[in-house]
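Same chain as my last thread, 377 residues:
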Amino acid sequence: MTERIRRFLRQRREDGPCVVVDLDKVHDNYLTFERALPDTRVYYAVKANPAPEILALLERLGSSFDCASVPEIEMVLATGAAPERISYGNTIKKERDIARAHALGVRLFAVDCEAEVDKIARAAPGARVFCRILCDGAGADWPLSRKFGCAPEMAPGVLEHAHRNGLEAYGVSFHVGSQQADVEAWDQALAVSARIFREMAERGISLSMVNLGGGFPARYLKEVPGVPRYGEAILRALAEHFGNRIPQTIIEPGRGMVGDAGVIEAEVVLISKKSDAEDEIRWVYLDIGKFNGLAETMDEAIRYPIRTDKDHDRMSPCVLAGPTCDSVDVLYEKTPYELPVSLSIGDKVLIEACGAYTTTYSSVAFNGFDPLRSYVI
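reply #2:
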């Protein structure tokens, strides 16, 4: 919570739950990544928060962009960014979307199988491709599934297939898992990447780039290492596994770039109990839930810091839930939250570190509720 956000919330007209993002914090975060990894290009993961103000700021700072779709590519181009600063990083693309991106000037594409290579060879001849490999995500709060990437031993075949089909086999990518707390998590993935580089060289194909992915954490309830520690660990691993032939590197921070720059202001709609038992836990219902921007509370994977004006009062555990007529719209029940006993219907609740993956997960009028309002200051 920054002082700028506090002032904005004091002055804003009441219009339901909203997220407020402070651009000064985004600016500082970008410079922190640049300093920690000075020879690495930053490709902001647009999916984390595609607010035009955020994209425009990052464009001015010199950022590149990781896009998951043609609309995201078009949003980035609208800032004035050159298409050379865009990576089409989704491994699952329609051929007509590949053709559209290529027509817009995009030349860098992610793949993880030969079938995707074939689409790019037809729709974006001569493009650069990098092959995403699987990573176990150990140490991450939200390990990524097997949906993206191939087994490392498959990658040389995929990249050679690209080379044989007129594409530039450009490099390798991986993702160590979202909200990665282990600064050493990149080490094993870089060791595997170096082996792929060596095998490709033996096949007569020189790779140029390693995409280090995202995974850099925002600070929620638990302390996390600062970006400089991740930079130091990554630089050590690059030197160990690549020696004097360190490749070009890029990173794709999303949550780490904008997560701690945003705060949601919500309102208590109802407080109740499910029985008259003395030890029955309270249920606190907010005007925002899983379908209004807090989808990352699924399985209680992300536990946001929650603040109220009454936090100096006695606290007790409660179940926290959203407003919709859907039984899965419960935010925290397995591990209840401590909230003030004096909390009342109509009180405001601040949910911190909500700058990433909130507006983009907000549904369009589920149960008739408006999508999450967003303000960028």
